[in-house]
What does this fold into?
Amino acid sequence: MNNFVFHTPTKILFGKGQVESLGKEVAPIAKKVLLAYGSGSVKKIGLYDKTVSILKENGIEFVELSGIEPNPKLESVVEGVKLCRENKLQAIVAIGGGSVIDCSKAISAAIGYDGNPWDLLLDGSLITSAIPIFTVLTLSATGTEMNGNAVISNMQTNEKKALKSPLVKPVCSVLDPEYTCTVSPWQIASGTADIISHIFEVYFSLVEGAKVTDGISETLLKVCIEYGEKAYNNPDDYEARANLMWASSLAINGLTAAGKGGEPWSCHAMEHQLSAYYDITHGAGLATVTPSWFRFILSDKTVGKFVSYGVNVWGIDPSLDPFEIANKAIEKTEEFFFDVLKLPRTLKDYGIDETHLADMAEKAAMEGLDKAIIPLTAEDVLKIYKDCLE
Ligand code: NZQ
Ligand code: ZN
It folds into this structure.
């Protein structure tokens, strides 16, 4: 088990009606905020009206940034920075899914930086300050509500990159599962695959002896499998929504990496190229590349991890041959992603062909994949992409 630092300063207000306390959290810190949201789902679920009245009741002025798209773009960050500077805003209240929150984090870090905000995505050491962020989460997936990451796309250069800084960890996040009841089956499926992938990216690390962390990861995986299916089939299942929501936060706040390391993440590096080139949904792209990555990394070295996964998560008979257990575990994962959650199985299903695969593989490998838990070259990534084609 490796040394680690675990620091999650975000205050979580979890459960029905917790948004009522948002004003009490923001008021002592800021009197003028940016209210950031996406394309209207927060209005349909009543969260926009609720937040506006809470801000007003607490004497907090606000300026709005709306229309933040999925896979948030650099342009929205630039617009948000302008609004914050012009209006001397002191904090950001982000209401929505990962895209809205990530965009808000990038804005908060870019306010104190004079150059192009994209520089901060290329070199995190340039981030020296950030204004406080408060979030009300409406989609369980990315875990951004409790971590220091923000993923931004630059469509001009076909790049999607992650900004990482402890300075952008939200001060406080409201997690009310009821706000996720309107999330579409497609987004539930993608979100569940995203949570699962965050766990996989670290679980298959070859670091031995991190039993606490592995046990937590296996429990979270079982939760995602059980409640992902329930939420997918029954939007009103509060217990399913609540468990998925908490799993999303814990899967990527450092808990499942404690003692195991794991960065940089392979499937995420490969998927970020897919969404940078084709603007596809992040979690769905992860589901497509994961089984091919599994087959690529399965070896004498890694088979033990696949056995633990197969036996402890899927209940596969431990007396079977280790490679048989591993292959069954991979098949179970595929069945869950593609039959239960009905996510696209192949790149062809998205209309993606070989055109950009070699470029994408080069770019993915440059995300440090030579240092991934199982190192990958650009050639390896290309093989994995090709294996996903059909
Ligand atoms: O734009 P609105 O109207 O809000 O609609 C959104 C959007 O169309 C909708 N939605 C959100 N909450 C809803 C809802 N629809 C109905 N009811 C609700 N309650 O869902 C659509 C997708 O939203 P989005 O925020 O894009 O989804 P998600 O939370 O999956 O975020 C994806 C982004 O996060 C990045 C991804 O790469 C992608 O850019 N990631 C961020 C990470 C992080 N910060 O740690 C880690 C992840 O690995 C990931 O890379
Ligand atoms: Zn992810």
